């Protein structure tokens, strides 16, 4: 199951996109997600798609790989498309299927909305494919930095996020181990009656929670032993460096924004 | 139950860029009632091999025959459940699988999954708790109030409650102190004899392999490197050392003595007693070389 | 004699809601550059001592002195900088997303400037021979490698003392040897004091001095030679004698007049050869 889902997976590389400052990437994707909603005609959607394609091309990650990652959401896209196809009643009737009639507006609307959805997922996937989770964390911490003045525990939140990410593979391994141990005791995780399924899930979750609490406790002790006492007086090993290329990419998004405003109908 | 591996191969994530071959060309037979130790480095394929014994993994090619059952890549996973009752597996750190409110419920969990009536399962729990060296009043307690060593014994009782014919043990003494380790190994040996089990022990301890096993299977880089009695396996101590595995301390001593004394010691020197006797012989025979 | 780097005087400790003492009236000292092993069965109180030494637990009675100063709230952070603790479970002490991040963690906590950090990380990783793994995530490392990263994280702080709290008990033989070899080298070359807490007497045999714990109290203290003379007394408290010691006593029972004491297997062979040639 996890093999097909590439959202959230990092693909190592040295492309210009990989090397962008994570803050720049976060801002680009965030801005893109907002301005996608400005598009309302063929030209503006073409512009947005062009930008997304260019971004992917520069990352040197193969289109087929990205496309494969988008597969799981294809059903959602298809559903949206069909919904609009049959529900929107604008413009001329193009054809008639049984009691349902397809209007010109429906085709347009359906195509645009599906494309919008695809582009949103496409760009956010690009972010995670080219940025390690820890870089994302650093970027978020840095961007949220000003909130510290408002007593938002930014450092703690970022550390929490970093540690959770670090322990995901460990927990996956643990889950697999416990599932195997319970399967050896006759638990069937793939089927059975509802009550059996519930029991199976309990036999997995209880040990998983217990070991996670134990881990958390030991980790906290180890952190204290290694001199951790909150964000005060702490230096940072990972440092972000804003480069001219980051500014250039942000400028490109600004340009995209301007063009969208001009060309939308 | 006889166990036979025929040309078994296992590839993780087959047909994907992450494919990794963990086992290949494994041909090995374990006869019913034998105590077999499987040794090898971490990553040698030991634990993949072990998971084929009760169908947790299926070979990607070849076949595993366990008693009447034959497991191949085609077998549907839901046909494997009956096998899991016959082959009990004690995983590493088995205490991590406990989850019920009471020790009794946890021991009964396995049997109930296999359709054993409740009072029968409870009767078994009472019998087994004593067998693993705990007292009956532990049954009503929460497993999480027990010490680490006690929790492990409860988990083992939970596997034994399936009344398996084959008992597979994966590093069952990891993390225990010397006394705990010895008590546990002795307990498994006793069970092996009393219940006429077929026992498969995966271990890093060459001492345990030499002490308890009738046969040793040496795994190396995904396939069977050697298979024989402890005597046969440890006879070629140098070959084992060459693939980075150690031999029991007694065998090391024998080797060094042979070199220093310029003699051949006929005894296999697998236990302390055997070795002491062999050295005594050396002194009694007496003549200087 | 120089002032000891560590001294514990009459320390007792009880866990909350427990009537029995986990550690009772324990006293001992450690010299600079020494390898001191604390041995005992699981639950003998030895890990509790480790935790008290860096202020994770507070003794109910008694005093702990490190580097000539009393351990208290004012000195605890300095102590945690100078004394590194390697825990049992390799996974649950790995904080960073990658090897270098993890080594950096303690440096960050101590406010070391970034440029110096980079330098120290490079030096520490070299000392544990893990250079090729600098950018690896923890789940791609073996247990032994993770423990070596933990040691590197301590070395980066340029410590005076390393405490191994059952640090090898979850490792395979290869991992165990890697870790012990690394610590042995640091002990010898850099005179870092080592306190190794273990139930493995084979491992403890290589220490300069041993402290045997039983039920929270110190049962014996001395060189490996002196300790292993206790023989079956050690077995009775749940420990296992080193192989050569067990073999030696079996041989004496059979009338081979070996001298009493502690040997390695090599020494045992030599002793036997001497006896044999004298005949």
Describe the structure in brief:
Chain B: Belongs to the ABC transporter superfamily. Energy-coupling factor EcfA family. Chain B: ATP-binding (A) component of a common energy-coupling factor (ECF) ABC-transporter complex. Chain B has 289 residues and is α/β, with parallel strands linked by helices.
Beta-strand percent range of chain A: under 5%
Mean pLDDT score of chain C: 92
Query: Per CATH, what is the topology of chain C?
Result: Rossmann fold
* Strand/helix succession of chain A: HHHHEEHHHHH
Number of strands of chain A: 2
Largest sheet: spatial strand order of chain A: 1-2
Radius of gyration of chain A: 24 Å
CATH class of chain C equals Alpha Beta
**Basic shape of chain A:** flat
Helix amount of chain A: 55-70%
N-to-C span of chain A: 43 Å
The CATH homologous superfamily of chain C corresponds to P-loop containing nucleotide triphosphate hydrolases
Uncertain ranges of chain C: none
Question: How many DSSP E strands of chain C?
Answer: 10
For the largest interface, the chains and their residue counts are:
B-C, 35 and 37 residues
Instruction: Please report which band the strand proportion of chain C falls in: under 5%, 5-15%, 15-25%, 25-35%, 35-45% or over 45%.
Output: 15-25%
Structural class of chain C: alpha/beta
Mean pLDDT of chain A: 88
Distance between the termini of chain C: 45 Å
Largest sheet of chain A: 2 strands, antiparallel
What does the model show?
The complex is a heterotrimer of chains A (265), B (289) and C (279). Chain A is built from nine helices and two strands, in the order ααααββααααα. Chain A has helices at residues 16-19, 22-35, 42-59, 63-87, 104-130, 133-144, 154-184, 194-225, 244-263, and strands at residues 93-97, 100-103. In chain A, helix 2 (22-35) runs antiparallel to helix 5 (104-130), helix 2 (22-35) packs across helix 6 and helix 3 (42-59) runs antiparallel to helix 9. Chain B folds into two domains: 33-44 and 80-244, 3-Layer(aba) Sandwich (Rossmann fold); 248-289, no CATH class. The longest helix of chain B is centred in the middle third of the chain and has 17 residues, at 178-194. The termini of chain B are far apart. The longest helix of chain C has 18 residues, at 173-190. Chain C has a six-stranded mixed beta sheet, with helices on both faces. In chain C, strands 2-1-4-5 form a four-stranded antiparallel beta sheet, with helices on one face. Classes of the chains: A mainly alpha (265), B alpha/beta (289), C alpha/beta (279). Chains A and C meet through helix 7 and helix 8 of A and helix 2, helix 3 and helix 4 of C.
């Amino acid at each position: 199951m996890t093999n097909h889902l590439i959202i959230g997976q990092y693909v190592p590389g040295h492309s210009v996109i990989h090397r962008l400052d994570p803050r720049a990437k976060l801002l680009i994707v965030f801005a893109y997600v907002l301005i996608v909603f400005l598009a309302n005609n063929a030209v503006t959607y073409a512009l947005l798609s062009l930008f997304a394609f260019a971004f992917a091309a520069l990352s040197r990650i193969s289109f087929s790989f990205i496309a494969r990652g988008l597969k799981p959401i294809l059903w959602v896209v298809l559903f949206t498309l069909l919904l609009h196809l049959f529900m929107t009643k604008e413009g001329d009737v193009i054809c008639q299927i049984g009691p349902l009639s397809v209007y010109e507006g429906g085709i347009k609307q359906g195509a645009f909305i599906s494309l919008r959805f695809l582009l949103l997922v496409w760009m956010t996937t690009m972010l995670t494919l080219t940025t390690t989770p820890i870089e994302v964390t650093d970027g978020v911490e840095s961007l949220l930095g000003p909130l510290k003045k408002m007593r938002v525990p930014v450092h703690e939140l970022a550390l929490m996020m970093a540690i959770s990410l670090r322990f995901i593979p460990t927990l996956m391994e643990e889950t697999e181990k416990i599932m195997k141990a319970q399967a050896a005791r006759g638990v069937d995780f793939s089927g059975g009656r509802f009550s059996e399924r519930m029991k199976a899930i309990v036999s997995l979750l209880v040990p998983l929670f217990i070991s996670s609490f134990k881990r958390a406790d030991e980790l906290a002790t180890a952190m204290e032993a290694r001199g951790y006492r909150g964000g005060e007086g702490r230096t940072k090993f990972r440092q972000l460096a804003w480069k001219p290329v980051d500014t250039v990419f942000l400028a490109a998004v600004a340009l995209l924004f301007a063009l969208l405003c001009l060309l939308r109908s | 139950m006889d166990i036979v591996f025929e040309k078994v191969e296992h590839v993780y994530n087959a047909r994907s860029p992450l494919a990794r071959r963990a086992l290949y060309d494994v041909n090995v037979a374990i006869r019913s009632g034998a105590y077999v130790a499987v040794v090898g480095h971490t990553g040698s394929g030991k634990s993949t091999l072990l998971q084929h014994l009760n169908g947790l993994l299926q070979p990607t090619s070849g076949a595993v025959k366990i008693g009447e059952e034959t497991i191949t890549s085609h077998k549907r996973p839901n046909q494997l459940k009956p096998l899991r009752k016959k082959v009990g597996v004690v995983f590493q750190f088995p205490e991590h699988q406990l989850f019920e409110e009471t020790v009794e419920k946890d021991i009964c969990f396995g049997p109930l999954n296999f359709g054993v009536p409740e009072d029968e399962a409870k009767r078994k729990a009472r019998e087994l708790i004593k067998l693993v060296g705990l007292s009956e009043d532990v049954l009503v307690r929460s497993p999480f109030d027990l010490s680490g060593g006690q929790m492990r014994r409860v988990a083992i009782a939970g596997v034994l409650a399936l009344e398996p014919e084959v008992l597979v043990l994966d590093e069952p003494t990891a993390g225990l102190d010397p006394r705990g380790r010895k008590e546990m190994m002795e307990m498994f040996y006793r069970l092996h004899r009393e219940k006429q089990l077929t026992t498969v022990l995966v271990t890093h301890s060459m001492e345990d392999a030499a002490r308890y096993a009738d046969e040793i299977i040496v795994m190396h880089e995904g396939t069977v490197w050697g298979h024989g009695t402890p005597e046969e396996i440890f006879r070629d101590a140098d070959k084992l050392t060459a693939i980075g595995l150690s031999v029991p301390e007694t065998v090391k001593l024998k080797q060094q003595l042979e070199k220093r004394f310029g003699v051949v010691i006929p005894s296999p020197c697998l236990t302390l007693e055997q070795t002491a006797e062999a050295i005594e012989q050396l002194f009694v025979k007496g003549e200087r070389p | 004699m120089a002032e000891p780097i560590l001294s514990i005087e009459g320390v007792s400790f009880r866990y909350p809601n427990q009537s029995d003492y986990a550690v009772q009236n324990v006293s001992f000292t450690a010299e600079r550059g020494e390898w001191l092993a604390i041995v005992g069965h699981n639950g003998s109180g030895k890990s509790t001592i480790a935790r008290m030494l860096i202020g994770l637990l507070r003794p109910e009675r008694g005093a702990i002195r490190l580097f000539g100063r009393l351990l208290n709230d004012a000195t605890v952070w300095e102590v945690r900088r100078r004394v590194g603790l390697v825990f049992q479970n390799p996974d649950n002490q790995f904080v960073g997303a990658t090897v270098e991040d993890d080594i950096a963690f303690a440096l960050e906590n101590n406010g070391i400037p970034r440029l110096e950090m980079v330098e120290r990380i490079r030096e520490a990783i070299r000392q544990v021979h893990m250079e090729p793994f600098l950018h690896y995530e923890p789940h791609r490392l073996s247990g032994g490698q993770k423990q070596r990263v933990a040691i590197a994280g301590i070395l980066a702080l340029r410590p005076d003392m390393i405490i191994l709290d059952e640090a090898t008990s979850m490792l395979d033989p290869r991992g165990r040897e890697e870790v012990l070899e690394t610590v042995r080298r640091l002990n010898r070359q850099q005179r870092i004091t080592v306190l190794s807490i273990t139930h493995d007497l084979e491992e403890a045999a290589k220490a300069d001095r041993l402290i045997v714990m039983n039920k929270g109290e110190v049962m014996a203290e001395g060189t490996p030679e002196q300790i292993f003379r206790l023989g079956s007394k050690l077995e009775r408290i749940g420990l296992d004698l080193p192989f050569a010691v067990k073999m030696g006593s079996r041989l004496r029972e059979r009338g081979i007049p070996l001298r009493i004491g502690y040997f390695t297997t090599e020494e045992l062979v030599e002793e036997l050869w001497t006896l044999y040639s004298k005949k």
